[in-house]
Amino acid sequence: MSALLQVRGLSHHYGQRIGCQDVSFDLHPGELLCIVGESGSGKSTLLKTAAAQLAPSSGSVRYHQRDGDWLDLEELSEANRRRLAREEWGFVTQNPRDGLRLNVSAGANVAERLMAMGMRNYGQLRDIAKGWLERVEIDPARIDDAPTAFSGGMQQRLQIARTLVTQPRLVFMDEPTAGLDVSVQARILDLLRRLVNELGLAAVMVTHDLAVARLLAARTMVMQGGRVVETGLTDQILDDPQHPYTQLLVSSVLTT
Amino acid sequence: MTASAMTASAIAAPLVTAFASPMLELRGLGKSFELHHQHGARLDVLDDVELTLHAGECVVLSGPSGAGKSSLLRVIYANYRPSRGAVRVRHDGDWLDLAEATPHQVLEVRRRTLGYVSQFLRVIPRVPALDIVAEPLIEAGLSLPEARQRAGALLHRLNVPERLWRLPPGTFSGGEQQRVNIARGLIVSRPLLLLDEPTASLDADNRSVVAELLEEAREAGSAVLGIFHDEDMRDRVATRLFPMHPLQIA
């Protein structure tokens, strides 16, 4: 099977400091890959660099388009990179307030990217927005409420609806369940799991929670100090960790 | 069927393995754990395991606790990474060494060729029992209604009451969870099946159902490798035993 995203030797440095260093991986269609590691291990930097939100210091990111051609992200103009990120990719931020527009209604948040892609029929947009609110288990009667009136868990579900409404092929997620109550977390994880399967999405998800990786991802990468120290099948990494850092991580935090 | 009736039943008739095709070949297989945070301690659990498993046979691993039976199943499933040797699996007619395979290859083998049923169900929050069982069928391309219908039939056969199907199994009894787990593991027929004490908390009637399901799988050509501590169950399903011994501490 051919990859959807091909990352090779990717690095991002903040001045002298290493964000991520020499990371390579392939992501296949329909696959969810987790990146785990402690705070400061470079997970989010890697995610943002792979998603073209940060410029690579070195290395390459290539994306396999629907028409079969490979796009080298570095060779794209800024406008085309933004078009790609808007129309074929999605990005879910840890804090939903960073990914939502707080001054417009829930419905407008969901419909905005569809409008940006040229859909104009108001009734149709509203119906789609309602459908997506239902899919993420938000009462469609709240379509005109501002996201500021929502709880943290609802805001995160709204952000997921806003991101998935355009049916992206590839979604980047940065700790989408961190900072939420456990029960709220379970609901979002179940939702993500279901939507990823239903829509056949490929996704890269950053998490510090190994139980989340086990639940959602067939493959996992472990990062420490900006580098990938271990990569492979999630269950193998959690049940038979090889690298000293992974062994420490698994023995320290795994509770399931 | 009662436990005593099962004792009376003869050991399952072995197929003529000389003519059956090999499905799994373990060659010089070894596993050691290196514990970096326990002063670099090394635990040797498997050494130089040689085993060939043929289509239509059910080989039961026997031996005391600590002999490495569960570890062997986990190494074959690629849940543990082998330290030495080969785990050759026949996948789509070709031989593939899982010790050398890429994660994507292993996932493909697990999806279509190699099944594993553990002793415990890993519960997924909020997902009802019926969908947990139906999931492998959906991954195999069946429609949701058809997958649910077949999942229901199998749960019914395993005597899981229909009122439980729509509930997440987190609150089920150990035996109910185990039956959901078996149903999930057996719903897609795979050429190679690994079973780690799947009947430990089942009563005699339900063990008997599992024995029937395994016989049907064997008759359909699956090769089965399992651990059954219950002697009646072992006698009933095994076509051959594979004795294992704890490794001597060097």
Largest interface: A-B, 23 and 19 residues
- Which of globular, elongated, flat, extended, rod-shaped describes the shape of chain B? globular
Amino- and carboxy-terminal Cα gap of chain A: 33 Å
Might you state the CATH topology name of one domain in chain B? Rossmann fold
Quaternary status: heterodimer
Write a structural description.
The complex is a heterodimer of chains A (256) and B (250). Chain A is α/β, with parallel strands linked by helices and 256 residues long. Chain A contains ten helices and ten strands. In chain A, the strands form two sheets. In chain A, strands 6-7-8-3-9-10 form a six-stranded mixed β-sheet, sandwiched between helices. In chain A, strands 2-1-4-5 form a four-stranded antiparallel β-sheet. In chain A, helix 4 (106-116) packs parallel to helix 6. The two termini of chain A are 33 Å apart. The mean pLDDT of chain A is 92. Chain B is of the alpha/beta class and 250 residues long. Chain B has a domain at 1-111 and 238-250: Rossmann fold. Chain B has helices at residues 3-8, 69-76, 103-112, 129-139, 144-157, 174-186, 204-219, 231-237, and strands at 22-35, 41-54, 58-62, 84-91, 94-97, 114-117, 192-196, 223-227, 240-243. In chain B, helix 4 (129-139) packs across helix 5 (144-157) and helix 4 packs parallel to helix 6 (174-186). The radius of gyration of chain B is 18 Å and the shape is globular. In chain B, 40% of the residues are buried. Chain A binds chain B through residues 1, 28, 186-187, 189-190, 193, 197, 215, 218-219, 232-233, 235-236, 239-240, 242-244, 247-248, 251, and chain B through 33-37, 74, 78-81, 103-104, 106-107, 124-127, 138.
